[in-house]
């Protein structure tokens, strides 16, 4: 099932447009409502003040009826629609709208001395109505709401126009920003596809916001790492091919000689010994390749259990002290603690340590030492350390970061010092990861190389140690209890 996804640029534009439209809509509604409410209130107060002034003028004359009529004529001259009612019920008006507004109910209210302030719908026209009682009867003033709010309506239209322009500007800006944001991401995506297609000379400009720049920088680092990794893989394959070809050439040449009968009878045993030696060398190389392949598999075999690393070190000592003594190398085991219980796979740890010792014994000259030390390393969390040091030629500072890469040191020192298959330290590195620990290369105080394996201290191992100690004291207490009458 194919999932349809919109582009980031389109989503940013839609989001910005939605926000702009929603903001403009809300702002427009608020502006229209507040402006019209304010205009209505202002128009009502203005008409109310005119009505008060007209009523006051109507009552200021000597003859009330004449003064009221004069006030109505003055309002008409000023363009204010008005009407008046006399004590006898006579109605005078300056417009039909004012006459319609002076309903019988309002006439009675004015003649009764009550003030009128209201709105009315007269024939579909919304008007403001203000009425004031006078000595002669009463005056009522009428103003169309459209006339009262004409200025505010123009203001509302201007506000709405401004909001519409702001929304358009927001859309334009969002499109520009979206393109600016999506451009480096698009370049990064294209570079990632190029990497997937096998190109390794891919570099992306580090630009844009911090997050986008970080993605570009990470992709550049990935490209460089892939280039280095594939280069090492090519070197590794070339090295392995060379190492496989050498014994195969020897075996093939001697086998042809034997098959052709050109080897004298007295030389048969020697030639067979050479073939056997080359076959064992080939077998060892193939075995190392298989070990490295297994350790790189998804589910390698691991059987963790409570293991005393000090006891394991003594087993190593019993085997390797004789092997070292046979070639004049002094072997020393240094247990810095009485015991070192860890939850790990003892067979894998032994395989790792044996690999380091094979490497050390190969390069350590007669008369120089090899040291295996087991200790606890303080820290949070604490670690158990198994360290192998030798008095051989050691490693340079440039060798340390690549010590566990397949065949890197093998290629550097081929023909300079004794080398193995080039896979031993790579297997050690994989084993350390498999055991949940770390291994690092360094310089030894003995003058050669130092390889430090760190295994995490495990609570289960400490709990098992405590349980063993308690079990060791229990029989004594039981014996004392049994002997008590």
Write the H/E string, N to C. Answer: HHEEHHEEEHHHHEHEEHEEHHEEH
Q: Percent helix among the residues?
A: 55-70%
Strand order of the largest sheet: 2-1-5-4-3
Number of helices: 13
CATH class of the largest domain: Alpha Beta
Structure report:
The protein has 485 residues and is of the alpha+beta class. It folds into 3 domains: 8-152, Beta-Lactamase (2-Layer Sandwich), CATH 3.30.450; 224-295, Helix Hairpins, CATH 1.10.287.130; 305-465, Heat Shock Protein 90, CATH 3.30.565.10. It is built from 13 helices and 12 strands. It has helices spanning 8-58, 64-77, 96-101, 104-111, 145-148, 150-196, 210-260, 268-295, 309-326, 346-363, 408-413, 424-434, 459-483, and strands at residues 81-86, 91-93, 116-122, 125-133, 137-144, 305-308, 330-335, 341-344, 369-377, 383-390, 438-443, 449-456. The strands form 3 sheets. A 5-stranded antiparallel β-sheet has the order 2-1-5-4-3, sandwiched between helices. Strands 7-9-10-12-11 form a 5-stranded mixed β-sheet. The protein has a two-stranded antiparallel ribbon with strand order 6-8. A hairpin with a 4-residue loop joins strand 1 (81-86) and strand 2. Helix 6 packs parallel to helix 7, helix 8 (268-295) packs parallel to helix 12 (424-434) and helix 9 (309-326) runs parallel beside helix 10 (346-363). The protein is rod-shaped. The model is unreliable at 463-485 (pLDDT under 50).
């Amino acid at each position: 099932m194919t999932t349809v996804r919109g582009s980031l640029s389109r989503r940013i534009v839609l989001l910005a447009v939605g926000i702009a439209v929603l903001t403009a809509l809300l702002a427009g509604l608020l502006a229209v409502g507040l402006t019209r409410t304010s205009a209505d209130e202002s128009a009502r107060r203005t008409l109310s003040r005119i009505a008060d002034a007209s009523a006051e003028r109507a009552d200021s004359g000597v003859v009330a009826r004449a003064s009221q009529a004069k006030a109505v004529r003055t309002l008409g001259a000023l363009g204010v629609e008005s009407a008046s009612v006399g004590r006898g019920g006579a109605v005078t008006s300056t417009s039909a709208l004012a006459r319609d507004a002076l309903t019988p109910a309002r006439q009675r209210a004015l003649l009764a001395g009550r003030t009128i302030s209201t709105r009315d719908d007269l024939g579909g026209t919304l008007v403001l109505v203000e009425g004031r009682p006078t000595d002669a009867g009463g005056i009522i003033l009428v103003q169309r709401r459209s006339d009262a709010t004409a200025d505010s309506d123009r203001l509302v239209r201007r506000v709405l126009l401004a909001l519409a322009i702001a929304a358009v500007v927001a859309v334009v800006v969002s499109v520009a920003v979206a393109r600016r944001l999506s451009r480096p991401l698009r370049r990064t995506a294209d570079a990632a596809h190029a990497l997937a297609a096998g190109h390794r000379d891919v570099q992306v400009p580090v630009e844009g916001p911090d997050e986008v720049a970080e993605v570009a920088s990470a992709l550049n680092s990935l490209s460089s790492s892939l280039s280095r990794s594939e280069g090492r893989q090519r070197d590794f394959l070339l090295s392995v091919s060379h190492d496989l070809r050498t014994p195969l050439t020897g075996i093939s040449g001697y086998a042809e000689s034997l098959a052709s009968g050109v080897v004298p009878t007295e030389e048969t045993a020697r030639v067979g010994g050479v073939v056997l030696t080359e076959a064992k060398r080939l077998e060892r190389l193939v075995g190392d390749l298989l070990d490295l392949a297994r350790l790189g598999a998804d589910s390698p075999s691991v059987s963790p259990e409570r293991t005393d690393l000090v006891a394991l070190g003594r087993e190593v000592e019993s085997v390797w002290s004789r092997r070292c003594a046979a070639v004049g190398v002094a072997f020393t085991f240094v247990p810095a603690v009485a015991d070192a219980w860890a939850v790990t796979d003892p067979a894998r740890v032994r395989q790792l340590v044996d690999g380091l010792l094979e490497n050390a014994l190969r390069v350590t000259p007669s008369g120089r030492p090899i040291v295996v030390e087991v200790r606890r390393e303080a820290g949070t969390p604490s670690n158990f350390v198994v360290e192998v040091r030798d008095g051989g030629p050691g490693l340079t500072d440039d060798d340390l970061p690549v010590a566990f890469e397949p065949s890197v040191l093998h290629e550097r020192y081929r023909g300079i010092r004794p080398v193995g298959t080039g896979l031993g330290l790579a297997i050690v590195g994989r084993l350390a990861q498999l055991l949940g620990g770390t291994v690092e290369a360094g310089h030894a105080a003995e003058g050669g190389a130092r390889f430090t394996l760190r295994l995490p201290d495990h609570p289960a191992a400490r709990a098992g140690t405590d349980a063993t100690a308690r079990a060791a004291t229990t029989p004594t207490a039981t014996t004392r209890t049994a002997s008590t009458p």
